[in-house]
Specification:
Layout: E1 2-7, E2 22-27, E3 30-34, H1 41-48, E4 58-60, H2 66-69, H3 72-78, E5 83-87, H4 92-98, E6 103-106, E7 110-113, E8 116-121, E9 127-134, E10 137-142, H5 149-157, E11 163-169, E12 184-188, H6 194-200, E13 213-215
Parallel strand pairs: 3-4, 4-5, 5-6, 10-11, 11-12
Antiparallel strand pairs: 1-2, 1-13, 2-3, 7-8, 8-9, 9-10
């Protein structure tokens, strides 16, 4: 399995950056795009990996903020066959504007492909997150973790015992000791205490930037 960071607040040489997030998961000959960033920078960075919209099988959207959904139409213009997993709490206007037949509306925990799952966390502010089975356990991918990182991880634990790691935006999460049981921590995008996490867990935590590749 391979994860490519397509758009993040930081970047490697030649890749573009933005206050946004998008990553591409390659697993079992399927391509899953998690969030789409805030415009065509995501697509530009995808092409630097010698990939294009027609290589993508699924798009999973975490929440309806523009820095996570703003690049969607660039992909749909080029590939009408992409399946889109959109959580039920997205505005009706978002669904109406899509006018797209391959929408999968997500209400609860669901396996969208073999060993690839989505679920929704939060009450006042909800967010969809992705879970992928790896040889070392479950890897969680978050957009911004607006409901809180702990509720997301605990929701995952309701279905899986072995949580291997987490990657994505952690927002204002500050209970760093809670992450001690994880083997891999990759704070991205909006994570407020990114530097503190990297300092506290030098063996477990890795930096995130547009252009990074993580293999499992």
């Amino acid at each position: 399995m391979k994860i490519r960071i397509l758009l993040d607040n930081e970047n490697l040489k030649d890749f573009e950056r933005s206050w946004a997030f998008s990553c591409l998961i390659e697993k079992d000959n399927k391509m899953f795009l998690f969030d789409t960033g805030d415009g065509n920078k995501t697509l530009n960075n995808l092409r630097l990996f010698d990939l294009g919209p027609k290589d993508i099988d699924y798009i999973i959207l975490s929440h309806p903020h523009f820095d996570h959904t703003g690049g969607l139409h660039f992909f749909l213009e080029a590939n009408k066959d992409i399946k889109i997993c959109i959580p039920f709490f997205f505005p009706h206007s978002f669904f109406n504007e899509l006018n797209y037949s391959n929408v999968i509306e997500i209400f609860e925990f669901q396996e969208i492909e073999k060993r690839v799952y989505v679920d929704i966390a939060g009450l006042n502010y909800m967010e969809q997150f992705l879970m992928i089975e790896t040889k070392k356990g479950i890897l969680i991918i978050t957009g911004c973790a607006h409901p809180g990182l702990i509720p997301i991880i605990e929701k995952c634990k309701a279905n899986f015992e072995n949580i291997y790691g987490i990657i994505g935006g952690f927002h204002g999460f500050r209970d760093l000791d809670y992450l001690n049981s994880l083997s891999l921590i990759i704070p991205c995008h909006c994570t407020t205490y990114k530097d503190q996490i990297l300092t506290k867990y030098p063996q477990k935590a890795k930096k995130c930037a547009s252009g990074c590749i993580f293999e499992f």
